[in-house]
């Protein structure tokens, strides 16, 4: 079976298997692998970011993530800025870095070498943020902010939230702010059959 970026999968995080009706353990998730291959043994899933699992400030991210996933039997990990940027960089027209007093910059291909680090450093050095198209990446839209476990600078972390009906942003949120924590699920393909 192929798993394409943005595909919806109902997945039960307690029984570690597919499910058919959304419940407290049967979550609506989305494939966030940018290039999942038939030979890969796992699929990376992002639970719907519009659901509130638990909120926290950036400093309590790890403990909040542990609380959320305490009774889950599936492998999980934190959501990282690299996960989101690799996805939105697939749109070479509408995904841009926005900086004050400088024209917007298309993100471009981030799938080689240290290109993603160069891109993140550019955003941070210009105090910029990324904007992406909601229609193209509706599975990343969150009406409330949600954290990545990636530091922007000493006092800010990278977070994601809707700007308006058309656009969302990946931006620097104060680490003392409260945002949603959305765990990343690493589902074994054998459990998705």
Give the overall shape, derived from the CA principal axes. Answer: globular
Element-level helix/strand string: EEEEEHEHEEHEEEEEE
Strand order of the largest sheet: 2-1-3-4-14-6
* Uncertain segments: none
Number of strands: 14
The structural class is: mainly beta
From the alpha-carbon coordinates, what is the Rg to the nearest angstrom? 16 Å
Distance between the termini: 9 Å
**Major pleated sheet:** 6 strands, antiparallel
Helical region count? 3
Note the quaternary state here: single chain
Strand content: 35-45%
Short description:
The chain is mainly beta and 193 residues long. The protein has helices spanning 61-69, 81-88, 115-125; strands spanning 8-12, 17-18, 26-31, 42-47, 54-56, 75-77, 96-99, 102-106, 129-133, 146-153, 156-162, 167-174, 179-181, 184-188.
Salient structural properties:
6-stranded antiparallel β-sheet; about 190 residues; mainly beta
């Amino acid at each position: 079976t192929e798993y394409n970026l943005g595909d919806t999968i109902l997945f039960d995080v307690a029984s570690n298997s597919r499910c058919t009706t959304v419940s407290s353990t049967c979550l609506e998730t989305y494939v966030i692998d940018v290039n999942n291959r038939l030979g890969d043994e796992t699929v990376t899933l992002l639970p719907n970011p519009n659901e509130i699992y638990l909120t926290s400030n950036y400093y309590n991210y790890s403990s909040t993530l542990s609380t959320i996933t305490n009774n889950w039997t599936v492998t999980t990990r934190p959501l990282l800025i690299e996960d989101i940027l690799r996805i939105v960089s697939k749109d070479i027209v509408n995904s841009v870095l926005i900086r004050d007093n400088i024209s917007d910059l298309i993100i471009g291909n981030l799938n080689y070498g240290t290109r993603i680090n160069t891109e993140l450093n550019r955003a941070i050095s210009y105090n910029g943020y990324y904007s992406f198209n909601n229609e193209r990446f509706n599975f990343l839209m969150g009406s409330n902010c949600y954290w990545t476990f990636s530091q922007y600078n000493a006092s800010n972390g990278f977070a994601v939230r809707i700007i308006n009906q058309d656009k969302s942003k990946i931006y620097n949120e104060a680490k003392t702010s409260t945002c949603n924590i959305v765990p990343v699920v690493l589902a074994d393909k054998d459990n998705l059959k």
